Amino acid sequence: MCWLTNISSFQRDWLRKDLNVIGFGLIGWLAPSSIPAINGDSLTGLFFGSIGTELAHFPTPPALTSPFWLWLVTWHLGLFICLTFGQIGFKGRTEDYFEK
């Protein structure tokens, strides 16, 4: 029953979402992922191009050996890392976590 005593101190807005982080994080990921660095193509271009290729045979799902999965995982992993660090940095700065 000890955990019930701390329930009133739980911060209801624990996520503390901020649309600035989402906007700047998305732009912060789209900019570097759109640089043509992979055989003259960008990661974003390869990912969106593979979506079109896979939709061409829509009822059939993508094969496990399709490059679509590599581009999907890589693009989203980069986006989520950028959003996570953006949330840590933006909220840490606004709430003075990094002050001495």
From TrEMBL:
It comes from the Eukaryota. The chain crosses the membrane at residues 21-38, 68-90. Keywords: Membrane, Transmembrane, Transmembrane helix. Pfam families: PsaO_TMD. The keyword Transmembrane helix applies. InterPro entries: PSI_PsaO (IPR017498). The keyword Aminoacyl-tRNA synthetase does not apply. PANTHER family: PHOTOSYSTEM I SUBUNIT O. This is Photosystem I subunit O. It comes from Centaurea solstitialis (yellow star-thistle).
